[in-house]
Design brief:
Helices cover 33% and strands 20% of the residues. The protein is α/β, with parallel strands linked by helices and 583 residues long.
Length: 583
Amino acid sequence: MVISRTILALCAVVVTVRAALLADYCTIDYAASALPVQDLGLGITIDPSSVSAALTTNKSVTSQWFEAAVIDYCNVTFAYSHNGLANDLVHVSYLVPPPDKFANRYVSTGGGGLAINSGGSLSPVGVIVGAVSGITDGGFGNFNTRYDAVFLLAKGNVNWHATYMFGYQAHHELAALGKQFARNFFNVPSTDKIYSYYQGCSEGGREGWSQIQRFASQFDGLVTGAPAFRFSQLQTNHLSGGVIEEAIGYYPPPCELEKIVNLTIAACDGLDGKIDGLVARSDLCKLNFDYKTTIGQPYHCPASGGGFPGGPPSIRRRQFPGAGPTPEQTGTITAEGVAVASAFTNGLMDSRGKRIYLNPQPGASFADATTQYNEDIGRWEPSLSGLGPQWVSRYLNLEDKDAIDSFENITSDTLRDWMALGMQRYYDSLQTTWPDLDPFKVAGGKIIHVHGEADSSIPAGSSVHYYESVRNTMYGDLNYDGSTAAMDEFYRLYIVPGGSHCGSNRDQPAGGWPATTLQTVIRWAEEGVAPDTLENAGGIDALCKWPFRPLWSQNGTAFDCVRDSVSIGSWIYEFDAFRYPVY
């Protein structure tokens, strides 16, 4: 009888909260009463005086990562510190949905570039799916402070606490606190499950994988887009275009490379069986199209104040190098320009002819080969802006500066050695390539991994390489069909034809971008409905799961997902320039 009364009392509290208006509970006092002060094994102390609560109603939100909606939420923020660590303060922010919309869910969202969060651009997706939705500032000062601002304590001295927070710890704490806060806020009994999810792209995609690889039971499902894993190789490789141009001795005007991209799209459009302005089979393009056929074609671009072709407006400018003002450009595609394009697409090779790394697929813009115009000398030269030069100067050389001085004496072998240095230094914090995901699978977690096929910042082949590393590590004793079937039980990769970096591509707009992926992974985790294809908001309604690729027949009217070993093989790389596995 006592147990029954206790259960009835708890149910009454839950019903009371769920029936109330959000405004009744969006107060500092109530938020403070719901703080996750339980011992979660994090070694932290929450500051109750730091709590704030702000009500927002009828807010219109839109993103390529979720469908447009009008939402209400209470934004609760508070701060905590790590026990035994001086001068430490971490801020977290949680968007709380109305009580009648709460679906016993929690969602974390990630950042981009060198930011550990994306502000309010991604977090509304949690409210949309009935979840408390969290972001963290990583302890870097505030929600607008990036990791690079706190990375160095002084020249030569790394802030390792900030590095591990950025690498994985801050997101672990955010999720652990967020799940308990959601339970406390809505008085959810301990016998009821709070489902936990994650969504992020680019750096946010890497942050998601940092949790999968370390905290197997933390999330029930994750959406990871274009992950910035293999961190040292990725960031150093942003310099590959400049090194290739230096080796060839030619610095193509951006308009020349843009013309090559446009001609590539036109030539490879129909290889998938449908003419729609979209390269849905960049693998067939790689196997069948020769850049030399573009030599002699005219190009013209008017003077520009800046910007980069093909990059979505939501991506920070620093993600793409060579985005400065340019003069009017008129000419014809040269053999030298084609040589640069060909070498770049082939990927970085060392002086022994061994592969160092890969580059974007044909049809992607040549972001990392885009030159900048030097007005003082009146000619084009390699770009020294963006993440690549900063990675070398700040994270490898440990200097408080955002770029190297020049490309002088920098060769492909130099880039290889820099990659090795960064891989060793940050292997347990930023590299994020651990390939054995068996603990996550055993815990019942589900992953939907998406990547734009025409991503010019993080090559789509990077995601394929990691998927294949996991498949070979976990199921190397099975044949290909058996191993991909085993992967399908918990991890599915979808390549978005024409997709750019974390969004649609203005050069190939028909590709679109999947906007309901979080809902899809929720159905998979909660209802067991695994997605064979992924719903897409674009000219292609359904995305094929790797290793299948799209193909149309009957004059572009009949769609199918197909597989052939030659096409698959064009995506597979061995980074044999290194004497150890690079997953």
